[in-house]
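Input sequence (180 aa), recorded before submission:
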Amino acid sequence: MRRSLLLHPDSRCEAIESIEAEVTRSSPGSLVVRYFVTGEIRSVRLPLPSGAARVDGLWRHTCFELFLRVGGEDAYCEFNFAPSLQWAAHAFDGYRSRMRTLEIRAPRIEMRQDARVFELQAEVNLAGMPDADSRADWRLGLSAVIEEKNCNISYFALAHVPGKPDFHHADGFALSIQAP
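Predicted structure, token format:
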């Protein structure tokens, strides 16, 4: 089921009409997330594919993010996927605390685009993530950072908390995926 990502109230984005995302838990330890961006795609700064590589700071430009919490735990993981095929994965013990690199295999990132639609799909094998193979339900936060060619940056998410954009806040984990 596709879910709409909402533009943060303090953001503006001239190029994008909508962003939707869907997630499939393909097995206990993996998932596929797809993002669908509709609008004037040529007005969005999309880095050219440069090869799969782990890179920090992707959120400073156009990228798509997945936050995942197992059950009711405070610990969570963050995944970033860029159109360049670069990616990042971090684990946190709690809200923005004790960040560390999450040792996982590189996600498989695929893209497709035309003048009106950009689609990014990332398949993530979560082996290495604590409790990823458990039968617990998962809480997810889905978000996107869009950089337009005019240098404007906007923030989209399933849910926003008051104040500046904060994808790490527990209230942003607004999607529940049931155990298989």
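Checked by second reader. The radius of gyration is 15 Å.
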